[in-house]
Amino acid sequence: MSADTQKLRSGETAAAAPPQTPAAAADAARAGDRDANSMWGGRFAAGPADVMEQINASISFDQRLYAQDIAGSRAHCAMLVDQAIISPEDGAAILSGLDTILSEIESGRFTFKASLEDIHMNVEARLRELIGDAAGRLHTARSRNDQVALDVRLWTREAVDRLEDALRELQAALIAQAEAEAETIMPGYTHLQAAQPVTFGHHLLAYVEMLGRDRGRLRDCRKRMNESPLGAAALAGTSFPIDRAATAKALGFDRPMANSIDAVSDRDYLLEFLAAGAILATHLSRFAEELVLWCSAGFRFVQLSDAFSTGSSIMPQKHNPDAAELVRGKAGRVVAALNGLLIVMKGLPLSYGKDMQEDKEPLFDAADTLQLCVTAMTGMVRDMKAEREALRQATDQGFITATDLADWLVRKLGLPFRQAHHVTGSIVRLAEARDCALEDLPLAAMQEVEAGITEEVFEVLTVEKAVASRNSEGGTAPAQVRAAIAAAKERFL
Ligand code: ARG
Question: Given pLDDT bands bounded at 50, 70 and 90, which one contains residue 21?
């Protein structure tokens, strides 16, 4: 739950009566002790049951859309005036009333009412209190269906921009660490078994690439999102001579959405944002998992700062990587948000259905969670200290230069790679039996396996040589890592 939502839940809405039994709720409704919603009550003889208000109202969470709702109303109002659909006087009154409401909300003086359901009706009701009947003209040629679609699009567009900025910061922090550790040697892993030596900088740059794709996915969904649903009205368009291009332009959209039914029923942009977010959360979680491993006793590859760790109330020696663990754990919420909204949408006939009100809480939660996790990661990466000794020492185990020996047999003795692989396997077995590293095996022992091996082989058996030799494009040699850092700065920062 977001901080805003929490505040409201513990205030206004939570203060509302706890759930009644359906019978008691029906009694209350029958007794007519509550007016039908004044915004649409014309057709209604009785007010909603208490429990109806509880299931129906979204104001506890959609109040987060207030700025977007007011911006949308301002653009709509200006267009209505320009098209001579409402008078300039009414238009001016509406705009100044909206300004007042904005400052009331921002200074915490606005009372949100669950009886008014959502942000749209809370704002409109307050506008009526402030300017009287002219307020009723704002909703000409508009429905809450296109209004909510507009508000959520505007909100999500901003969330995408915020997240992309945060991702750039995280990439910058990773690139700075990669630059400092371009020559720091560590084991590279497959199957979490030491595979070949790599540089720590190279490993960190892998995450820079992953985050670069995340940014690409966000930018891509922003592009498709950036069309205006305003003017679709309830679902079919309107008989008023509106100018959809004008409102689209005023709100920074590329164009109006082409189909009014699609405009009110589409939530693809949220699914795309959440899908991009779920992949991003997965990346962050993998990195978080590595940090947790790396600062554990088995590795000691990095030190996380006190600022991102906690102690134990019982074990004085502990320095727990809680922030990393939480980033790993919070991925679950983001993936769940995507999953939840997919399930909400899958059975919905066109066009708008109230089910779609369920889009907001997962959206807000996922956006908040992603922003928080990326920011926390950035702090952890900035403060992280690589333990160069431990990283280097870890390459002493696991015969990590075995591939280099095989490659040498191919290059110098002309063996087919498969055969070289086999020969190397036998030499590794020998080293294992003697409990020594490959480079500590006597030449004679290796020659028993393959007579052609010479003294020269020792040149490729050190990890420094092995790393420097992997100088292919995108490879782990420090020269490549430096080139990759320069390119990453150009591409991402
Ligand atoms: N609170 C609603 C939502 O979030 C706004 C749209 C309601 N439209 C309607 N016709 N009831 O979806």
Answer: low
Say how many Å lie between the CA of residue 303 and the centre of ligand 1.
Answer: 50
Task: Let me know if 312 is a catalytic residue.
Answer: yes
What's at 52, amino acid-wise? M
pLDDT at position 289 is 98
* CB-based contacts of 266, cutoff 8 Å, min separation 6: 149, 229, 257
Q: Please indicate whether residue 191 is annotated as part of the active site.
A: yes
Give the model confidence (pLDDT) of 110-128 as tens digits. 999 999 999 999 999 999 9
Return the ligand 1 atom nearest residue 354 CA: 12
Q: What's the whole-model pTM score?
A: 0.89
Average pLDDT, rounded, for the chain? 92
Would you say the CB of residue 145 lies under 6 angstroms from ligand 1? yes
Q: Using one digit for the tens of pLDDT, what is the confidence trace for 338-389?
A: 999 999 999 999 999 999 999 999 999 999 999 999 999 999 999 999 999 9
Interval between CA 404 and ligand 1 midpoint (Å): 64
